[in-house]
UniProtKB/TrEMBL annotation:
Gene3D superfamilies: Ribonuclease Inhibitor. InterPro entries: LRR_dom_sf (IPR032675). This is Uncharacterized protein.
Length: 541
C-alpha cells in the first residue's frame, strides 16, 4: 500500500530530526495526529526529569522511547524505583549534587547512604543498552561495590563511565572497576578522601592493587581523566593504568601529589606507554615544589618510541606555566604540536614568543599576555625577542588577549609612541601580517584601537590576510574605525564573513578606560559602509 504521509519513511524522518530543536518537534507534533504519532517518541530521547517520575504525564506509555536522562536527581530514582523501566536507555546522569545532599545528612541518621547507593547500582541492571553513565558512589561498602561490579559486567555496551567517589576506596576495588570497564573508550575517575590512618592492612591493599593492575589486560580507553587526593593511588593505580592504555589519545591529570610519581610517569612514557597520546591537559598541584610539566613534556614527542604519534594538543588550565615548559615544547614537540590553549593564566611575552617562534606546525593558539614592563620581561633580551620571526605560518585560529597596552589611552599620544608596548605591537603586527592562512582571529587589546589606517594603526599591514573569515575584537576596545577602514576591509579581506565587536572569547581585564570613549559615529559608519559593500558579512556589537 502506498504511504500516505511524507514522514512515514524512517530515513527521511531521522534526517529531518537532525535539524530540529525539541521545540520544533513539539510544534510539528501539534500539526496532526499522524505527525504526533511519528514524532512524539523523539521528544522523549532527551527528556529532563526534574520532578517525581510519578507526576510525568505519559511516561508509562513512552518509557521504551527514552534514551537519554540528564540531571536525574538520585532521590527521584530511589523514591520512584517502581516507575523505573527504560529498556532502551543509553545515557544517564545520577548527579553528584544529589549524592552530596544525601551524604551531608547521613550523619544525622535521616538517610542511609549505603542503602541509597545500593538502590542506584541495582537500577543499572535494568538498562542493558546503557552506553554513558555518570554516577557518584561510596565504594567502601562491600555490598555496594559487589553489586556495582556486577552491574558494570552486565553493561556490555558501556562506552563512557564518569565515576566520583567521595570517600576512601579500597584500591583493589578501583582495580576491579577499571578491569570491568575494559571495553569503555572514555573513563573519568575522581577519587577523594583521606588515608591518614593507613596501617599495615591498607599498605597491603595498595601492594595488591598494583600487582593486579600490572597483571590486567590492555584497555580500549581512548580518553582518560583521572583525579585523586591520595598519593599512594598514583603509584598503585595511575602509573600502571597508563601502561595498559595502548589506544589512549587524550589524558587529563588533575594533580600529582608526590615528586616520585613524576619519575614513574616519565619512565612509563619513555618506555612506550600510550603511544597514540595526542591530547594532554595537565593541572599542576601546588604541593609540588618543582613544576612536573617540563619533565612530562620531554617524553611526549614523536621520537620517544616506535609508533609514537607525538603530542598534538595541550590545554593548560593551571596558573603555572613557565618559560621552562615552553622550552620543553619547542625542544621535544616542535614536529607534532598543532594546538596550544592556555585557559586561565596570564602569559609573559617571553613565554608566548618562545612558542610562536619555535613551533612550526601550530594551527590554533589561545593565550593571554600580561602587560609588558621591566617586571614582566627581561629588557636586555627584548630586542632579541622582537627580532625572531614566527615560524607558525600555517596558523588558522588565533585567540589572543593582551594587557600590553594597559594604561595607554590613545595611540596618538607620546606615552604610546615612546613605550615598550608600541615596540612590542610593531613586532607583533609585522608577524600577524605573515599569517596568510589565518581564518579566525580574536584579538583583545583595549583600550587602544589598533585596527585603523591612520597614525598608530596597523590595519594597512594586514592586506595578506585574505583567508580571514572571522574577526573578533574586545568589548573594551576604543573603536575609531570609520568609512576608510570599511573600504579597505571590503577590498582586502575577501573571505570575511563575521565581525564580532564584543568578543569575550579571551577575557582580559583592562582597567581605567574612563578617560577614553569610542567614536560611535565612526563605528556606525564602518558597519554601514562595510555591510553595503559586503552584504553577507554579519556583525555583533
Amino acid at each position: 500500500m502506498e504511504k500516505d504521509h511524507a514522514f512515514d519513511d524512517a530515513v527521511i524522518r531521522a534526517e529531518l530530526i537532525k535539524h530540529l530543536t525539541p521545540r520544533n518537534i513539539l510544534h510539528l507534533c501539534c500539526t496532526s495526529k499522524k505527525a504526533f504519532d511519528l514524532f512524539i517518541p523523539h521528544l522523549w530521547h532527551t527528556r529532563r526529569f526534574y520532578t517525581n517520575l510519578k507526576n510525568i504525564p505519559g511516561l508509562k506509555r513512552y518509557q521504551k522511547h527514552v534514551k537519554v536522562i540528564k540531571d536525574l536527581s538520585i532521590d527521584l530514582a530511589v523514591e520512584s524505583r517502581d516507575f523505573w523501566s527504560f529498556p532502551n536507555l543509553q545515557s544517564v546522569q545520577f548527579v553528584q549534587q544529589s549524592a552530596g545532599h544525601f551524604r551531608a545528612y547521613s550523619s544525622s541518621g535521616n538517610v542511609n547512604t549505603a542503602r541509597v547507593d545500593l538502590r542506584l547500582v541495582l537500577l543499572l541492571k535494568t538498562v542493558p543498552l546503557l552506553q554513558n553513565l555518570t554516577i557518584t558512589l561510596a565504594l567502601d561498602n562491600s555490598d555496594v561495590f559487589q553489586h556495582f561490579l556486577a552491574s558494570l559486567q552486565s553493561l556490555t555496551h558501556l562506552q563512557k563511565l564518569k565515576m566520583t567517589c567521595t570517600e576512601y576506596v579500597n584500591p583493589t576495588h578501583i582495580q576491579k572497576v577499571i578491569n570491568a570497564c575494559r571495553q569503555c573508550e572514555g573513563l573519568y575517575l575522581t577519587f577523594s578522601g583521606a588515608d591518614s590512618f593507613k596501617g599495615i592492612e591498607e599498605k597491603e591493599e595498595y601492594e595488591q592493587a598494583k600487582i593486579d593492575m600490572e597483571e590486567m589486560g590492555d584497555l580500549a580507553v581512548k580518553t582518560l581523566k583521572l583525579s585523586t587526593t591520595l598519593a599512594d593511588q598514583e603509584a598503585a593505580i595511575m602509573v600502571p593504568l597508563l601502561k595498559k592504555c595502548p589506544l589512549l589519545e587524550e589524558l587529563h591529570i588533575f594533580n600529582i601529589m608526590v615528586p616520585e610519581t613524576v619519575d614513574l610517569l616519565k619512565d612509563a612514557l619513555r618506555d612506550g606507554a600510550c603511544p597514540k597520546l595526542r591530547i594532554f591537559q595537565p593541572n599542576r598541584d601546588n604541593s609540588l615544589k618543582e613544576d612536573p610539566l617540563p619533565v612530562l613534556l620531554s617524553v611526549m614527542g614523536p621520537d620517544r618510541g616506535m609508533g609514537a604519534v607525538g603530542l598534538e594538543k595541550i590545554t593548560i588550565t593551571s596558573s603555572h606555566f613557565k618559560f621552562e615548559s615552553a622550552v620543553a615544547m619547542t625542544e621535544h614537540l616542535s614536529q607534532s604540536l598543532t594546538q596550544v590553549h592556555c585557559q586561565d593564566l596570564m602569559m609573559n611575552f617571553e613565554v608566548f614568543n618562545e612558542l610562536v617562534t619555535g613551533l612550526p606546525h601550530l594551527q590554533s593558539v589561545r593565550a593571554r599576555l600580561n602587560e609588558i614592563s621591566v617586571q614582566t620581561v627581561d629588557i636586555n633580551k627584548f630586542d632579541q625577542m622582537c627580532s625572531r620571526d614566527w615560524v607558525c605560518l600555517g596558523l588558522k585560529k588565533l585567540q589572543l588577549g593582551s594587557q600590553l597596552t594597559q594604561g595607554i589611552p590613545t595611540v596618538k599620544g607620546d606615552s604610546w609612541k615612546q613605550s615598550l608596548p608600541k615596540r612590542c605591537m610593531d613586532y607583533m603586527f609585522s608577524q600577524f601580517a605573515k599569517l596568510e592562512q589565518l581564518e579566525e582571529w580574536d584579538f583583545v587589546a583595549g583600550p587602544v584601537d589598533l585596527f585603523i589606517l591612520g597614525a598608530g594603526g596597523y590595519l594597512r599591514q594586514l592586506e595578506n590576510l585574505t583567508s580571514l573569515r572571522r574577526l573578533g575584537l574586545g568589548p573594551k576596545t576604543v573603536y575609531r574605525m570609520g568609512s576608510k577602514e570599511a573600504e579597505w576591509v571590503a577590498e582586502h579581506w575577501t573571505s570575511l564573513e563575521y565581525v564580532d565587536l564584543a568578543s569575550s572569547n579571551v577575557p582580559v581585564l583592562i582597567i581605567d578606560i574612563s578617560r577614553v570613549k569610542p567614536d560611535k559615529l565612526a563605528l556606525d559608519t564602518f558597519i554601514h559602509n562595510l555591510r553595503s559593500r559586503r552584504p553577507r558579512i554579519a556583525f555583533k556589537k
